[in-house]
Structure formats: structure tokens, C-alpha cells
Amino acid sequence: GDRGWRCGPSAELSVVAVAALGAGLAALEAQRRRGGPTADPSRCEPAAPPPRRMEGPIGLEVQAPWAALLLWGYKTVETRLYPLPPELLGRELFLVESAEGQAGVSGVGDSVAAGAAGLRIVGSVVFSESIAYPSRAAWEADEYRHRVPKTSPYGWKDGRTVHGWVVESVRPLAEPVPVPAMQRVVRSLFALDLPDGGANLETLQSRLGAKPPTTGSGSIPTINLTPFMRGSEEEQRRVVDAIATQCQYIGFLRVTWDGFPTQVVAAAQDAARRFFECDQLAKQQWSKASVRKQTTSYTSTGYRSSGSTENNKNRESWSCTVPRYVPREAPLEGDYYASSAGQQHFALQPDPHVPWPDESQLPGFREAICNYYDEAEKLGRVLLRIFARVLNCEEEVLLAMTDKHVSAMNLFSFTMGEGGEVLPAHADVSVFTILSHDSSAGAAGSASLEMLTPDGIWEPVRCEPGSFTINLGQIMQRWSNGRLRATVHRVLPPVDGPPGAKRRSITFFQLLNYDASVSVLPECLAQGAAPKYEPQSVAEWQKDRLAGFYQPPEKLDVNKCWYHYNSDAYVA
User: Fold this and answer.
1) What pLDDT, in 10s, does the model give residues 367-412?
2) How confident is the model at residue 217 (pLDDT cuts 50, 70, 90)?
3) C-alpha distance from residue 550 to each of 345, 536, 558 (Å)
4) Residue 86, C-beta contacts closer than 8 angstroms, at least 6 positions apart
5) Is the peptide bond before 323 cis (omega within 30 degrees of 0)?
6) Predicted local distance difference test score (pLDDT) of residue 568
7) What is the spatial distance between Cα 505 and Cα 491, in angstroms, rounded to a whole number?
8) What angle, rounded to 10 degrees, do the helices at 365-390 and 233-247 form?
């Protein structure tokens, strides 16, 4: 056709061929033409225009939803059938998001007018290296970084080379902007007619301003809550202001206070350690799957083995909600718990609400876990009071939405030197999350938890004994209409410990009453401003975010599931 479509396999490109541009790009194109006589219909791309110099701003076209997944840290290797030209390594490339289309087929012309429909700049990315995968095994082992499924048309095919461009940093814009006029340079790379080279574009980082001061080299402060709990009005205000300043930039902080429950935390971590040291058969008995259900009501998940679910890759877990709840026992009784809606979150007799280990097999486990949950719940109420002031609403507004909450608590364990990715880049579907790590002798520590900072780099999140780590969830970002940040984070295999050492944590997810709202609070809308998020109840919102993960395997698209799961955090 008049677009000059050409289909065919791409041979591995020589670094020498692209080093000089001009003639070098011509050589690259000639080499690509010689890739083979038979066409590969799974990879069709428009013919490259005459080579031109890659000076000035360059854009990389990426289809939705992959542009967002790349920009927010879920995808850390971009894959192409050609290497990134060496002169573009370490250089900022603007991400041009195009509409989702047919795999392997570009819907973007060689010359694009400014403001073209279906195209926008969403941010920028810097690549540190371009690698050629040497084999199918290497390609498949790296799926947790490039995210291309084995069955994808973009996947590995014998006889062609797949290249991976390794992300060094990303930089989201504060708001996506229409594309300027642009001209294809080669393949998916375009020369952009951006005034000032794009320097005038407002990034998320520039909107947020300077990083708040911290006592260490990292971005996470430790804030003492004692003045808020016991101090004067002015002392309380200073705590509120410190937390507001931090969470408007990064939704991570550590908190402590006089009388921190050190012994309760240690007892719970010891109970978790003893639990995960039990043999596999015993642990399987303490799972929902082992309960002979007599009703259709809820029972907590209990134990899950490594690899049993998408969010349990390379780690074991045991989880519960409201662990002191016993069906039809005061004070947690009534229609809220026993109604058809309540039965989605609470058990009915005779079913157990939590699949507890037998006391004779694991003495003290139940008491230690309940005591820890109580402390996290008490801290949650203090934080809700603080955030009510941050959000300029009455404390009772938030407390009333959480007085019969369905908060979950998970115990996690994974082993130093085993497996790849543990949990991909995500933002929690909670109000906030309260976290502690096992810091006993021989534990692998907390360095495997990393957060994506506003300047687009991954920073380790280290816990400190005598404090809880707090990270804001997407509910808080929604309530605040984006003012407070649900910071994207990920979990990698442990790196600080001897082989075989265990990394264990206890995570409390502060949730709402199941009939509460996750809509933007009226107090957080300036006069005449529109909410960034549509009004939704908790039930509607959770269904939207989680339903995809429960599709049958033949319909499951894990990458799109995570995109929808994180979609509120992707709103700058």
C-alpha cells in the first residue's frame, strides 16, 4: 500500500552498523532487508524513511497499556527486534503512547501532525543497555522483566533475535500532553518537534517539588507520633504537617512512638517463624482449602504455598481478616456481619472465620497474631485521625468508614537465593499498609522491598527495629483526589543474607467497612474542580481492580490485570 508495509524477519543488528547514523542507519536497513527470503506475518512494520540524524528530542512509540506499564515500573525491559542505537543509551526518550492495536502492526504513519488523535506523550524513559537474548531459555527466564508472555506474537521465535532495552529510569508527566509534529527516524523511534526539547513539559516530579528533608540518605523519614498522641495542639499540628509533606511527595514513611509495642511485634514475628518452619503437610491443613465448608460464607485464606497465586510467586503466606471475629459472638454480631453482603467478608456458623493452627501443634500462635493485629488496628485509628486533618475533614468522617473494617493481615516468608520476582510493581488497594520485618539473627532483612521515587529510580525500603513502615494505598490517593501518593513498589528476592536465610514480614492492610465509599472526599475538591476518579463503593471498586485475576487460565491476561489493579496509582 501507500504506507510501504514490509513484512519479514529481522536479523541481529551490528553495533557497527548503527554507530555512525546517516550511512550507518542505511546499512542497518539494508541488513534488515537481508534477514531472509520468507516473510514472518507476526511482525509487520512500516518501511523506515530515509535515515536522518537523531538530534533533538526523540520519541519512542509504545502501545497502550504497555506505555503505562513501562512508565510506572511494572515492565523494566522494553523488547524489540532491533537493538537500541548506541547513541540513544543513557539519553531521555519521550514515551509516545498510541492506542492499543494489533500485535506487530504499527498504526502510526511516518509523518504525524501535531495533536494527532490517539497519540500523546505520557513521560520519558532512559535505557542503560541494549541486550540480545542468546536463547529461548534466556528470554523466558527474563519474563518477569520484559513481561511478554510465551504465547505473544512478540515472543521468542527461532531464527530471529530479540533485543531487550533495559530501563534505567522513568519520568511520568504530571498530565499527558498531545503529540507535537513528529517524523519517523527508524522503526518505532521518531524525531519530535518539541519546543525547548521538551524542557517546558511539567513532570510529576516538578509538580511535587523538592524532596522533603530526611535524616538519612534515603527518601523515607521516621516520624515520632508521640507529640500527636499526647502533645499540645501545636505539637499535633507539626506531626500532621510532617506527614502531609512526606505523603504529598512519596507515600512511604516510618512511624514510632513512646511505648512502641516491641514485645508484641517480636512475639508475632517469632510465631510467624515457627509457623513457616512447620512441614508442608501441616501448613496445608491451616488453609481455607482444607476447611470442609458447610455454608457459602467467607473464610480467611490461611496458608498459601509458593507459586499458588499470581501475588504469591516465590513466597509462602498465611493470611486472615479480623482474627478475633467469631460468628454470632458479641461484640461483632448483627446484620452487618450475617447479611448476604456481610457473608462475603465474615463466616457463618459452623464454619471457621480463620483456619487457625491447632494450639497443641503451634502453641501461642493465635494469641500472638491477634495481639499484633490489635496493635496495628490501634495504630490505624491514630493514622486515620492524622490523615483526616491532612485531608481537611472531620476525624469522624474517616473513623466512621472504618469502625467495622475488613482489614487483612498477611504473614510472608521467602528464601534467600531462591526464585526470581516475588511481587511486581504495584500500589496497594488499601487505605494504607502497616509493615514490619523479622529482624532476628539470621533473617534476610528487608532490602528486597523497593519503591519507585518521583525521579523515576528504584530505592530500597529498609525497615528499622522499633518502628513500623507505612505506605499509602490507592484508597488514600482517591480520597485526596491525587494529592497524597500511593507510591508504586515491588518485592525482589532477598539480597542481604546468607543462602537459605529467610526474609519474613507481617503486613496489615488497612481497609474500610465493606459498605463504605472510595470516592473523592468533598473536602479535597477545590471549588469548580472535577474529581480525577469516578465515584465508587468499596465493592464496585474492588471488583473492578481484582476481577481479572479470577478469570480462567485461557482468558487470563496477567499484564492487563496488573494494569487495572494499579490504574488509580497511574493517575498523576
Assistant:
1) 999 999 999 999 999 999 999 999 999 999 999 999 999 999 999 9
2) low
3) 17, 21, 10
4) 15, 18, 19, 130
5) no
6) 94
7) 12
8) 90
The backbone torsions φ and ψ at residue 285, rounded to the nearest 5 degrees and listed phi first, read -70, -20
Quick: pLDDT tens for 125-150. Answer: 999 999 999 999 999 999 999 999 98
Contact 130, 84 (CB under 8 A): yes
Contacts of 421 (CB under 8 A, 6+ apart): 144, 313, 314, 490, 491, 492, 493
pLDDT at 338: 92
Distance CA 366, CA 555 (A): 39
Residue type at 568 in one-letter notation: D
Task: Kindly tell me if the per-residue pLDDT of 496 is higher than 80.
Answer: no
Q: Is the pTM higher than 0.70?
A: yes
Between CA 246 and CA 8 the distance in angstroms is 52
Q: Which of 302, 298, 306 has the alpha carbon at shortest distance from 318?
A: 302
Beta strands 432-437 and 468-472 are: antiparallel
Q: Can you state the percent helix, strand and coil of the chain, rounding each to 5?
A: 30, 25, 50
Q: How far is 297 from 342, CA to CA, in rounded Å?
A: 8
